[in-house]
Design brief:
9-stranded mixed β-sheet, disordered C terminus, 5-stranded mixed β-sheet
């Protein structure tokens, strides 16, 4: 998921940083079942089988998963890519006037545990939009923040999902709304089914579910605007039963969190067979492969999509879509991939750039992580006024941003390109690796942001912040992508570890993107680009289709890079914690070592060297030296120079390098690896020092202020002028953005 405008997230964040209509009880009830009374807020009552839920404050896991977690490493010799746990067979009909989806779902779930399961937990994500009393809107209201661009729901635009009947075998299944994260009693995003028949260890069960989904006006990831429909998180989706040895679990536990303002999703791998019925003049795009030609009946077309080894399914429908752009991509180890771009007429200029960015991403991620395993990829450009449908990822399917004009080396080109790369990248981290986005967003938003910026860096692409207006003024600012990302991360006072969960954060979700990308960039600079890429390839190989934890990433990086101490130090201080890094040059001097006044023994007596006599002697010595060395550089002479550099540390210890340049062209380089709060280095040399620089290789982008990493003896305003010009260019860009809002 993109977080607002990419440029705003990566740089401007550092600078610019209700009444609701509740769904009535009869909508939530099936025809033969009274609506259950809302559960009281607080810890839910235990399920009949005693299997607990994951803790509300669960976050990054510190203990590595077992080698056999989720069936062990997928070798490619298995009959399926993943250990499929669930199968969804869904018939869904869209009413584009009422913006509703009527569905019948056959959900088959397998109990992987060694205990009988008497209750299961199911997500009803769409109820996040039923009214101001949901967890989503409660957090939005209490924090006083907007979701991304700030689009809000007005009267008559709310959404919900209503269960109209749940059957197991021949028996009606009772359900109860629960609140695993202690959210408000008016939240209905998680429901517990208490089963008429327990599911034995290793056995499977099937639920027949009738449901009705009212889409909201699109304001966060899903919904409608006009004839455009992005249908995401629209069906009842079962939670994840984690087993001992998986993501830190020590006993079987259900992982099913409420829909939070800043959390996304987590689900088991499985297969989908979905039939989507919509008016025949609507263009459909969806997760997976279309099976044959659509079938027409009564002016409606039914499109059948099938996809295995994914954990979600989303689709789009719009009668205004232009003719889809369809191309193919091939790469080593991957099947032939059909790439489709769906776009509205007003954003026709964005279709070809989005296609190119998608295919470039397929190549880069396949080469640097591992082969793309699916046969399709669908890119959706939402229409004007549906911006909050953009920048969202689902398996084999994602949405981006659209622009009427896409001009080279301007912000529109960069934003479209980067958003496409970013949402595609989720297909690897959220999709194939499939981490728990609720509890460990560092593994998705964070790692994805890092890998996206690597792609930009590796192909020499800058972050272009200009607009047609700034270009007309001769201002076309461009920034190094990682440097721009650094601007958007809390460095002086970081409050939230990247490994904290997505929804309980003081500095909001943006730091997950920027701080993770920056700390991973710093780790790569420390251990080496090639070892880091080799480690990430191994991480993908070991953990694809298996839901890794933060500890599993840590262990893979430590083993493959061969630099366990460095990796463990970074994870302890910057992933599981958020520790300020702030090393600086506190003082820098280089003074000529002249003869000093005083007394000295000469033979059997003592003589006094008076300052006046010394001054004459020094002057003569200098004159003689200058005559003998007429072309000597400034800073050299007959007397040596004592150079001192005082380093101060106001945060976590990181391995540092100090480079001091001297007037004779020599350089002294020293390491500062100790955990001390200060250290003074000194040299006595025949040349005066010219400059001192801490971290000359720019290994530490997390450092609070890079400007205090260097000093010169003579005043040099070039750095301040350069930073000032960059800042003014960026502010010009921000002002132009504000003017167009």
């Amino acid at each position: 998921m993109r977080l607002g405008s990419t440029l705003l997230r990566t740089g401007a964040t550092a600078i610019l940083l209700a009444a609701g209509v509740a769904v009535t009880a009869d909508l939530l009830a099936g025809p033969d079942q009274a609506a259950p009374a809302p559960a009281a807020a607080g810890t839910p009552a235990p399920a009949p089988d005693g299997i607990p839920l994951a803790a509300p404050n669960a976050a990054a896991v510190t203990v590595a998963s077992a080698t056999n977690a989720w069936g062990g490493i997928r070798t490619g010799l298995e009959t399926t890519l993943s250990e499929r746990v669930v199968h969804y067979d869904i018939d869904a009909t869209l009413d584009p006037v009422k913006h509703t989806v009527t569905g019948r779902e056959k959900l088959t779930w397998r109990n992987r545990s060694s205990v009988a399961v008497k209750s299961v937990y199911v997500h009803l994500y769409m109820n996040a939009f039923e009214g101001a009393g949901s967890t989503f809107f409660t957090e939005k209201r209490q924090r006083g923040t907007a979701f991304r661009s700030g689009v809000d729901i007005k009267e008559g635009e709310w959404g919900h999902i209503a269960l109209r009947g749940v059957i197991q075998g021949e028996a009606t299944v009772p359900w109860t709304f629960v609140h695993p994260d202690n959210g408000p009693a008016t939240d209905h995003t998680v429901v517990r089914f208490d089963l008429p028949a327990a599911v034995a260890p290793g056995a499977s069960t099937t639920f027949d579910i009738d449901f009705h989904t009212q889409l909201p006006r699109v304001m966060a990831r899903t919904g409608y605007f006009g004839s455009f429909h992005l249908v995401g998180q629209w069906f009842p989706k079962i939670g994840v039963l984690e087993l001992p040895g998986e993501r830190g679990a020590t006993t079987p536990r259900w992982n099913a969190h409420e829909m939070h303002l800043n959390s996304e999703f987590y689900a088991d791998f499985g297969s989908f067979d979905v039939r989507l019925t919509a008016p025949k003049d609507y263009t459909i795009g969806a997760t997976g492969e279309l099976q044959g030609a659509p079938v027409e009946q009564h002016g409606m077309l039914t499109h059948r999509y099938v996809q295995g080894d994914v954990h979600d399914f989303a689709w789009t429908a719009d009668k205004r879509s232009a003719k889809p752009m369809v191309e193919t991509w091939t790469g080593p180890g991957s099947p032939n991939v059909t790439v489709t771009v769906l776009y509205p007429p007003e954003y026709a200029a964005s279709a070809a750039p989005a296609m190119k960015a998608a295919k470039d991403s397929l190549s880069y991620f396949s080469n640097t992580l591992g082969p793309y395993p699916y046969k399709t990829l669908t890119v959706v450009i939402p229409p004007h006024n549906a911006v909050e449908a953009g920048g969202m990822e689902y398996p084999t399917f994602f949405t981006v941003e659209g622009y009427a004009k896409v001009e080279p080396d301007l912000a529109s080109q960069y934003l479209l390109d980067f958003t496409t790369i970013h949402e595609f990248g989720h297909g690897y981290f959220y999709g194939i690796l499939a981490n728990n986005e609720f509890e460990e967003p560092v593994l998705d938003e964070g790692l994805n942001e890092y890998w996206d910026l690597r792609m930009l860096r590796d192909r020499g692409q800058k972050l272009h912040a200009g607009t047609p207006f700034t270009r007309s003024l001769g201002i076309t600012p461009a920034f190094d992508a990682f440097a721009a990302e650094r601007m958007g991360t809390p460095r002086n006072d970081p409050a939230d570890p990247p490994g904290q969960n997505a929804y309980d954060r003081l500095q909001d979700i943006g730091a997950v993107y920027s701080r993770t990308a920056t700390l991973m960039r710093d780790l790569e600079a420390r251990v080496g680009k090639e070892p880091m890429e080799r480690a990430f390839k191994e991480y993908y190989r070991r953990w694809k289709f298996r839901h890794p934890s933060t500890a599993d990433l840590r262990e893979t990086l430590a083993e493959v890079t061969g630099q366990r101490a460095a990796v463990e130090s970074v994870f302890a201080r910057q992933v599981y914690a958020a520790t300020k890094v702030d090393d600086r040059i506190a003082d820098f001097s280089s003074r000529e070592q002249l003869p000093l006044p005083g007394t000295r023994q000469a033979g059997s007596g003592w003589v006094e060297d008076k300052q006046a006599d010394l001054d004459k002697r020094i002057e003569k010595t200098r004159e003689a030296w200058s005559k003998a060395n007429p072309k000597a550089k400034d800073g050299l002479g007959p007397y040596p120079f004592r150079t001192e550099v005082l380093l101060r540390r106001y945060g976590a210890a990181v391995p540092q390098t100090l480079a001091v340049k001297f007037a004779d062209g020599s350089v002294e380089t020293v390491r500062w690896d100790a955990g001390e709060s200060w250290h003074k280095f000194s040299w006595v040399k025949p040349a005066r020092a010219v400059s001192a620089e801490l971290d000359p290789q720019r290994l530490h982008y997390l450092d609070a202020n890079k400007l205090d990493d260097s000093r010169t003896l003579k005043a040099d305003a070039s750095a301040s002028r350069r930073w000032g010009m960059d800042a003014s260019s960026f502010i010009e860009y921000l002002l132009s953005l504000i003017a167009t809002v």
